Amino acid sequence: MKRLLTWILLAASCILPAKAAFIYSGLQNIAIPTNFDGVYLNIDNAATSSSLITGWDVNFFFGGYGIANSTDFQPGRTGTGNMDSIMAMTLYEEVGGATLFSVGEGGSDSHMGSSPGQFQSGIEHYLGFRFVKDGGGPMLFGAMRVVLTINEPGGVIKDWAWEDSGSPYVAPEPGRVVLLLTGLSSLALRRRKARQKQ
User: Fold this and answer.
1) Does 120 or 11 have the greater pLDDT score?
2) Euclidean distance between CA atoms 75 and 49, whole angstroms
3) Which of 116, 121, 115 is nearest to 65 (CA)?
4) Which of 66, 101, 110, 112 makes a 20 to 30 Å CA pair with 120?
5) What pLDDT was estimated at residue 18?
6) Residue 11 has pLDDT above 90, yes or no
């Protein structure tokens, strides 16, 4: 039993950032419309709307072919211009000091394609970002799991997460995190039942 617990804790240390709180949105599956209005998203509270909302961070439209960002939310880009292409991240890629960001409101319509670093239509990718929470505070780093399309149905914002200390963020696969937490819960429940029988 101690070996199993040690293995689970070791696995957790490899998946989750150390000494930081990992804030996860939970599975959202927010559909991205194929119109110009799109979907505005506030990642602090998961509020969405087809029109401008208070505290909006990002707006995906035309299935994800178009992306607009607020001044408080900056996606990772190919350069520091606020219209430079937004980069598709790979799993376990770090979002932090080496990631390129712009300042101010911006957008992108050049992030779709088949070249490295581009979002491929209908394929799941990660969008790295930095942002400031609605109440202010330090710049935080995170990633969003998305499927974007070129003005076709099927675009979806699956979920997102950030690291709340301001340290760089490495995107873990949400499924692995859920499995790990489920395993830890099952282990704790078994131990509790075993103690009750004694």
Assistant:
1) 120
2) 20
3) 121
4) 101
5) 45
6) no
